[in-house]
C-alpha cells in the first residue's frame, strides 16, 4: 500500500480521534460506554477500505504495545484479556466493512445499513469474546443472557444514535476533505 502524505494525515487523525473516543468513557460494567465505535464509523465512512482497516489496526496495535489509548486510559498486551477486547478486534473488520459498503456514499439509508451491519458484527465478535474471557479467564461465571445484558442491551440505543449522527455528518466532512 503506497500511502500519500494526505492519506497518512487522515490515518493519524482518525487514530487520534478513536483514542479520544476511548477517553470519553463511562464505566458501566465489563464494557464501558465510549465513543470509540462512533469514530470507527467515521473511519469507515471517510477512508477507503484498506486505509480504514489499517487505521483501526494501528489504534489497536498502539494500545497493545502499551500506549494508554484504550478505554480507561489503558494499554499493554494484558488488554487482550479484558472482556471488551473482542470489540476492538471487531472494529478493525467493521471499519473495512463500512468502507466497502458506504465509502463515498451520500444516501443516508445506504450508510445506515452499513453502520447497522457493522454494529451487528461488533456484537457478533465482541459478545462471544466477552463470554469466554469472563467465564474462562477471569473466572467470573456468567450465562450468555447475563453477558448480553452487560455487553449489548445498554448499548443498542446509544449505538443507533451514534450511527445516525455519523450517517448525517460523514458525507459533509468527506466532501469538505475532498476539496482540500
Overview of the molecule:
This protein is mostly helical and 180 residues long. The chain has one domain: Orthogonal Bundle (Arp2/3 complex 21 kDa subunit ARPC3). Helix content is 69%, strand content 2%. It is built from 7 helices and 2 strands. The chain has helices at residues 5-23, 36-46, 49-64, 85-102, 108-137, 144-151, 156-178; strands at 25-26, 33-34. It has a two-stranded antiparallel sheet with strand order 1-2. Strand 1 (25-26) and strand 2 (33-34) form a beta hairpin. The chain starts with a helix and ends with a helix.
Short summary of the structure?
The protein is an all-alpha fold and 180 residues long. The protein contains 7 helices and 2 strands, in the order H-E-E-H-H-H-H-H-H.
Overall, the morphology is globular
| Oligomerization status of the protein chains | single chain
**CATH fold description:** Arp2/3 complex 21 kDa subunit ARPC3
What is the H/E string? HEEHHHHHH
Strand arrangement within the widest β-sheet reads: 1-2
Number of helices: 7
* Portion in beta strands: under 5%
How is the biggest beta sheet arranged? 2 strands, antiparallel
Uncertain segments are none
- SS class: mainly alpha
Number of domains: 1
Name of the CATH class: Mainly Alpha
Features:
single chain, 180 residues, mainly alpha, 7 helices, 2 strands
Question: Would you spell out the secondary-structure blueprint of this structure?
Answer:
Elements: H1 5-23, E1 25-26, E2 33-34, H2 36-46, H3 49-64, H4 85-102, H5 108-137, H6 144-151, H7 156-178
Antiparallel strand pairs: 1-2
Helix pairs in contact: 1-2, 1-3, 2-3, 2-4, 2-7, 3-4, 4-5, 5-6, 5-7
Amino acid at each position: 500500500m503506497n500511502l500519500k502524505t494526505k492519506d497518512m494525515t487522515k490515518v493519524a487523525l482518525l487514530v487520534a480521534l478513536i483514542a479520544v473516543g476511548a477517553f470519553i468513557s463511562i464505566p458501566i460494567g465489563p464494557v464501558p460506554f465510549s465513543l470509540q465505535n462512533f469514530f470507527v464509523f467515521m473511519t469507515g465512512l471517510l477512508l477507503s477500505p484498506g486505509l480504514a482497516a489499517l487505521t483501526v489496526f494501528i489504534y489497536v496495535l498502539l494500545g497493545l504495545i502499551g500506549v494508554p489509548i484504550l478505554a480507561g486510559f489503558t494499554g499493554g498486551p494484558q488488554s487482550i484479556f479484558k472482556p471488551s477486547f473482542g470489540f476492538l478486534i471487531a472494529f478493525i473488520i467493521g471499519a473495512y466493512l463500512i468502507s466497502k459498503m458506504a465509502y463515498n456514499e451520500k444516501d443516508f439509508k445506504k450508510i445506515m445499513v452499513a453502520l447497522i451491519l457493522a454494529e451487528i458484527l461488533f456484537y457478533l465478535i465482541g459478545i462471544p469474546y466477552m463470554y469466554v474471557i469472563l467465564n474462562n479467564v477471569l473466572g467470573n461465571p456468567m450465562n450468555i443472557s447475563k453477558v448480553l445484558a452487560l455487553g449489548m442491551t445498554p448499548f443498542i440505543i446509544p449505538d443507533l444514535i451514534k450511527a445516525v449522527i455519523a450517517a448525517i455528518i460523514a458525507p459533509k466532512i468527506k466532501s469538505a476533505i475532498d476539496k482540500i
